[in-house]
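Hi L.,

As promised, Gfo/Idh/MocA family oxidoreductase:
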Amino acid sequence: MKNKIRVGMIGLGARGFGLLKGIVLHMDDVEVVAVCDLYQDRCDQAADAVAETGISRPLATRDYREVMAMGNIDAVVIGASWADHSEIAIAAMEAGIYAACEVGGAYSIQECWKIIETYERTGVPCMIMENCCYGRDEMMVLNMVKQGVFGDIVHCAGGYHHDLREEIAFGKENRHYRLNNYIHRNCENYPTHEIGPIARILNINHGNRMVSLVSMASKAKGMQAYLRTAKGEDSELAQTEFMQGDIVTTIIKCAHGETITITLDTTLPRYYSRGFTVRGTKGMFTEDNHSIYLDGTHDEFHMSWDEQWGNVEKFREQYDHPLWKEYMEEGIKGGHGGMDWLVFSDFFESVRQGTQTPLDVYDMAAWMCISALSEESIALGGHPVAIPDFTNGKWMTR
């Protein structure tokens, strides 16, 4: 068991640098020995942040292959652009280094298979860092599902409902990769925040799997309307035709008959929500009005509206996940309401113990492939598309 984990941080834009400053540098058993980004100023900023903590200044490089070649790295945290995640994760596994890969969508099914094949050949774990799997509500609902509170689960839903118009519009100035994706692609480009928690509830890759999907995209008008105000009618981007539909709806069918609906909604004005919903034969949970409804308990003819809706806190004491009960006692740390700290704690514990990560390459491939498959389905007018079985049949007994 390792006492000190030596880590390389690769990709130091807003997310990567935020993880470095807000999470990784605060973990006592982790030492950052390398930082890497395509942009030198980001490398320098990250190296300065590490040195300010009183430890040795790390290697700062613009080539991730130099990090892999150091020979004394235990793990890398990959916060680079979506298009680079898989390439860097594969290089890490090839070098015998644990990989913590930030979320995003795949660009091809071949990319997903290459991740699987590399893991199966090397045996080196790679974890998709889906922090929403560690959300308090998501873990409480998972706990309730495992206890049978909602009965037989029939349908789940989720979404990435997040107004990103400003981030996309100023992508060139901020060197952010989302802009080019929204100009050139039309797909469910960010599926894992919603599908990750749902996959755990439905035992995806562990007794169940997703078998097919259908995706449809609305027209793309939100970004141009926003840009005319933000940058002016005559600006280059205001004249640019965006491929990415404003609303993308994807319906997934599972091997055991459950359905999943996920929605991408990032270029129209709205409030933030992940739309997490679980429907079973005995009840439901829905995030949007923060409510639990249980058959036989919440009878609309005997209870007021206030008693039925917005009532999740009434269930905390009985059903809060044990991990979160302990976490609340110790004190919440890190960003996104504490989820980031939990997902990284789990990853680094796996590195320390030399064990498999709790979210593995099969999860990574199954969740990320939705982007590539939705792109195909949309291009075919909403045609059903088969989802590969990345476990090659092992999902039935894993």
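The longest helix spans residues 361-379.

Thanks again for sending the construct details.

K.
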